[in-house]
Design brief:
The complex is a heterodimer of chains A (137) and B (180). In chain A, 75% of the residues lie in helices and 0% in strands. Chain A is built from two helices and no strands. By secondary structure, chain B is mainly alpha-helical. In chain B, helix 1 runs antiparallel to helix 5 and helix 2 packs across helix 3. Classes of the chains: A mainly alpha (137), B mainly alpha (180).
């Protein structure tokens, strides 16, 4: 009969670290979605501006030209704002990415520590293994 | 009522800022100790130990690579120790045997220059200092983890360092208290 040596470690802590990492991952996903949305909005407005420019080139009446130029100016203003929003979203995503990477590394190291001492099964509490999971998004 | 709440929030923010400042200072102390540890690890052994190492190295060179006299007695060039080998070990073995004092003196001079601005530590001194630094780093790491847990219990979540020691992060509360 084998008896297990008592150890001073609390595996609930590993579960907490994994949960913290998963929460950080959820934050990162939401930040990535915001970046994606901001990029899409910017692309849409750029396309609108191009359409307006095209119309302007073909407008014969002065009144139409003035109306279109005013629309282009307004679109430019929106584009500037949306570019700033995209830059801010990218910065937030970078912070969230660094945060997630840090908590993932700590969870991974703690899990490995527990595995090596036979305290946890391989892969236990680590469903999000691997740091390349969200690359390419 | 509102005023009391505002005061309470302000008090909480003050405690939060104070705690974070203390934790930051603790982490700076830990980083400083880690740098000291690197310095101790990199410290050279005393010059006398280095010269003894040179002497042992010359012994080995002489014992293992001294050319056999027979290599020169056959009259065949091909029997002589090769001078084409990249390391030229037979020649080095011969030098070790014949010029030992000169080699030691030359290296002694080089070591004198090397040690001019480098404090040395004997193996025993190094072992003792590393043990002391490790104990200090461990004590601070336990304090850090203990402070983080207290903050968590008070509803103030604090991020752990990604290079935090799993052997401390995973300790039970009781085991952590025991080591403080």
């Amino acid at each position: 009969m084998t008896t297990k040596t008592p150890h001073p470690f609390d595996l609930d802590r590993l579960a907490q670290l994994t949960a913290a990492r998963d929460a950080d991952y959820a934050v990162l996903r939401s930040k990535l979605d915001r970046v994606k949305e901001a990029r899409q909005r910017l692309a849409q407005h750029r396309a609108t501006r191009n359409d307006l420019l095209h119309e302007l080139e073909h407008a014969a009446r002065l009144a139409d030209r003035e109306r279109l130029q005013a629309k282009i100016d307004a679109t430019d203003k929106t584009l500037t704002e949306q570019q700033a929003a995209l830059d801010a979203a990218i910065r937030e995503e970078e912070v969230a990415s660094a945060t997630w990477n840090a908590s993932a590394r700590l969870a991974e190291r703690c899990s490995k520590f527990a595995e090596e001492r036979g305290l946890a099964l391989p892969g236990q509490e680590l469903p999000l293994r691997g740091f390349g999971l969200i690359s390419g998004i | 009522m509102i005023s009391a709440l505002v005061k309470s929030v302000k008090r909480r923010n003050d405690v939060d800022a104070e705690f974070r400042a203390e934790l930051s200072a603790l982490r700076k102390d830990m980083a400083k100790l880690a740098r000291q540890r690197e310095d101790v690890e990199a410290a050279p052994v005393p010059k006398a130990e280095a010269l003894t190492a040179v002497s042992h190295w010359l012994d080995e060179l002489e014992e293992r690579h001294m050319p056999s006299p027979g290599a020169f007695t056959t009259g065949h060039v091909g029997d002589r120790p090769s001078l084409k080998t990249a390391d030229g070990l037979p020649l080095a073995g011969l030098f070790a045997a014949t010029c030992r004092e000169l080699i030691l003196k030359t290296l002694d001079d080089h070591l004198e220059d090397y040690y001019e601005n480098r404090p040395s530590l004997s193996s025993e001194q190094k072992r003792q200092r590393l043990a002391k630094l490790d104990a200090d780093i461990l004590r601070l790491a336990r304090l850090e983890e203990s402070a983080i847990r207290e903050a968590e219990a008070a509803g103030l979540p604090i991020r752990r360092r990604e290079d935090a020691d799993p052997a401390i992060v995973l300790l039970t509360d009781e085991a952590l208290r025991h080591g403080l």
